[in-house]
Design a protein that fits this description.
With 518 residues, the protein is of the alpha+beta class. Helices cover 16% and strands 33% of the residues. It folds into two domains: 108 residues, no CATH class; 334 residues, Methylamine Dehydrogenase, Chain H (7 Propeller), CATH 2.130.10. The strands form seven sheets. Strands 25, 26, 27, 28 and 29 form a five-stranded antiparallel sheet that branches. A four-stranded antiparallel sheet has the order 1-2-3-4, with no helix packed on it. The protein is globular.
Length: 518
């Protein structure tokens, strides 16, 4: 077993920073207490400034055939069969098990749109019905229960598109109305509250495009206006502030599509230019800097853009000529091959003849013009679907759909409303929630996000005594986090698979801390 060493790495990274150079940023993220469960589903309008309907229906936008979630992937083949592979915690693959899948397995037929998130998944069938499955602790499935679902459950009809974030889901119906549900402790549902929603709630009218980020949401209305709400610590909403927004605020006009990632956002305007804003510590905004931006900035050298996609610290854009451009952090080959050691601060063309692209957590997935499916990046939980479990895949790796791979699991119609019960332990973790080590990593990464923000703010204002006090107060907490990290590692000593995954993710956090002053 690997020796306990990451705590030393984390501490060394922090101690190095006292003499590091200048950067830009905003205050540390406030701690938020998870909001209480909403007792009953509600179907009322949200609090967006102008929800007057024009009567125009939302178009079904192109895309949605491929999606990469956290350590797993999903794709719809030309025959309308939905396939999934990789990590299967919470049953997010949808095959009625929680077993990881090294190769693609069939999930459903007649699928036209798919979205994979952090811990749950959603798909639309050709009849417009929406099906969701996976983790349901905060209502992410939307079936008015708190019970995880290991195979698809029908939620609603007449749906044109859907987007799954980190526990929250947004869907556009064919009449252009936007519906939201799931996790809401950072206002990511936009209904003016911090209460989780266990069933769909109507928020806005006249919506053409929606994207759910980790803790924020972006929507394009039929008039081309872009709206944002949720957590805004790093400027990911683009309204020139770092103030959270509990309900939708207008950002810019003339927008065609948008992609909400982890604390940053990218969008394509009607003139084919691409814009980005929010966290930029790895160059994921593509503006040639590593400075966060609180309002939209034009991505360097990109015009005639068809679509843009972003997730963790990496971004990809597809131009109308079929060329694929990438930038941001290349950790584990997340944006390109191993020859790019760190980050790309401006877009670089890496491939042509591409028809569709999706940038996921530490990976990228594409469909080529010849109809073949490919992906590359980190592969430690079979998330590339090629049967291998490795730190970095070959570049690129083709996804093969084997028609004899599996039978399609039985799917359920909407369940009768039931009170949440103690969740069955089918993941190897706690019977009442996430495996404790996974929750620790989520909590730790959120703390690191805030710590990095505070550090950069302090570096910009070293004479500010309040900032100095806050910064060194947070620095003192690093020892506590390192102690917790070591304890979790010891607890996982007898679970080789979980330990490997834990150390991989912990190394990523340590690397982010070590890069803070660069």
């Amino acid at each position: 077993m690997r020796k306990l060493f990451l705590s030393a790495v984390l501490m060394a990274a922090v101690l190095l920073l006292a003499s590091c150079g200048k950067s830009e940023e905003e205050p540390a993220a406030p701690e938020k207490v998870p909001a209480k469960r909403t007792a009953e589903p509600v179907e009322t309008s949200g609090t967006e400034e102008d929800t007057a309907s024009t009567g125009e229906a939302a178009p079904v936008y192109h895309g949605g055939l491929i999606s990469a979630g956290y350590k797993y992937g999903m794709a719809i083949d030309p025959d309308g069969v939905l396939w999934a592979w990789g990590d299967n915690e919470f049953g997010k693959i949808g095959d009625d098990t929680t077993e990881n899948r090294p190769y693609p397995v069939k999930i459903m037929e007649d699928a036209v749109f798919v979205s994979a998130g952090y811990c749950n998944s959603a798909a639309i069938k050709s009849d417009g019905s929406l099906w969701v499955w996976g983790n349901n602790e905060y209502g992410g499935v939307g079936d008015a229960t708190g019970n995880d679902r290991f195979s698809p459950v029908k939620i609603m009809d007449d749906v044109a598109s859907v987007s799954v974030g980190l526990g929250h889901v947004t869907a556009i119906k064919s009449d252009g109305t936007l519906w939201i549900w799931g996790r809401n402790q950072f206002f990511q549902l936009g209904d003016g509250t911090e209460e989780h929603k266990f069933a769909p709630v109507k928020l806005m009218d006249d919506v053409a495009y929606v994207s759910s980020g980790s803790y924020h949401t972006m929507a394009v209305k039929t008039d081309g206006s872009l709206w944002a709400w949720g957590w805004n610590e790093f400027g990911q909403l683009g309204d020139a502030t770092n103030v959270d927004k509990p309900s939708p605020v207008k950002i810019i006009d003339d927008v065609k599509s948008v992609s909400a990632g982890h604390n940053f956002t990218a969008a394509v305007k009607n003139d084919g230019t691409a814009w980005a804003w929010g966290m930029n510590d790895c160059g994921q905004l593509g503006d040639g800097t590593e400075e966060n931006k609180f309002a939209p900035v034009k991505i360097v050298g990109l015009d005639d853009v068809k679509s843009v996609s972003c997730y963790f610290d990496n971004t990809a854009a597809l131009k109308n000529d079929g060329t694929l451009w990438v930038w941001g952090w290349n950790f584990h080959g997340a944006i390109a091959d191993k020859e790019i050691e760190d980050s790309l601060l401006v877009p670089e063309m890496i491939m042509d003849d591409v028809d569709a692209v999706f940038a996921g957590p530490l990976c990228i997935m594409i469909i080529k013009n010849d109809g073949t499916y490919w992906n590359w990046g980190s592969n430690w939980s079979y998330q590339l679907g090629n049967g291998k479990e490795e730190e970095i895949s070959e570049f690129p790796a083709q996804i093969i759909f084997d028609s004899s791979a599996s039978e399609i699991p039985e799917q359920a119609e909407p369940a009768e409303r039931e009170e949440p019960t103690e969740r069955e332990d089918r993941t190897g973790g706690s019977a009442t929630g996430d495996a404790s080590w996974r929750q620790f990593l989520r909590d730790y990464e959120k703390w690191v996000d805030g710590y990095i923000a505070l550090y950069k703010k302090y570096m910009d204002n070293p004479a500010d005594m309040t900032l100095m006090s806050d910064y060194f107060g947070q620095m003192a907490k690093m020892a506590d986090w390192a102690e917790k990290a070591d304890k979790v590692q010891v607890d996982l000593a007898n679970d080789a698979e979980a330990l490997k995954e834990y150390l991989e993710m912990l190394s990523r956090i340590a690397l982010r801390l070590s890069r803070m002053g660069s």
